[in-house]
Amino acid sequence: MNFITVHYLNIILGLGAIVLQVLSVFTLILLFFAAKKSNKFLEYIESHFILIGFLIALLSSLFSLVYSEVLHFLPCELCWLQRIFIFPQVFLFGVALWNKDRKVIRYALPLLCVGFLISVYQNFIYYFGNSNTICDTSGVSCFQHLVSEFGGYISIPMLSLTSFFVLLTLLLIANFNQK
Description:
- The protein has one domain.
- It has 6 helices and no strands.
- The termini are far apart.
- The protein is globular and about 50 Å long.
- The chain is an all-alpha fold.
- α1 runs parallel beside α6 (156-176) and α5 runs antiparallel to α6 (156-176).
- The mean pLDDT is 85.
C-alpha cells in the first residue's frame, strides 16, 4: 500500500474510533444516569449486543492483522498481549451469535477486562512516557508513531483501547439493561 492509501485508512479508522468513543460514553451516561424508563436506544443495543460485539471484535482483529501483516508495522510486546485478549472475542461472540447465547458475558468479560487494563497501561506510556524506551528485546517500541491522526490523538494504542472500551460497554449494557 502506498502512503496516501495508508493515510486514508488511518483517517477512516480514526473517525470510526472517535464515533465509537462518543457513542459509548453517551450510552454509559444513558445507562447509569438517565431515567429508568424504557429507552429504545439502550433496548436496541441490548437486543443486538452479540452481533455488534462480534463485528467490533472481528474488525479489531482484522485491522490489527492488516497493520502487522500487510503494512508491516511490527507489534510491540504490549500489542501482542492485547491481541491475546481480543482475538478470542471473535470466536466467543461468533459462537454466541450462532447459538443466540447471552451467557457470552461470563466468558468475554474477564478477557476484556485484562485486555482493557493492558491497553490503558500502553496508552499511558505511549502518551506520557519516555520516548527513548524500547518495549522489548526485538527493538520494537510502543512509542513509534506509526499511526498519528487528529493531532496525535488517534494511534494504534488508542484504537486498541477503543475496541476494548466499546466491547466492555456492550457487555455492561447487556448485563444491566435487562428487562
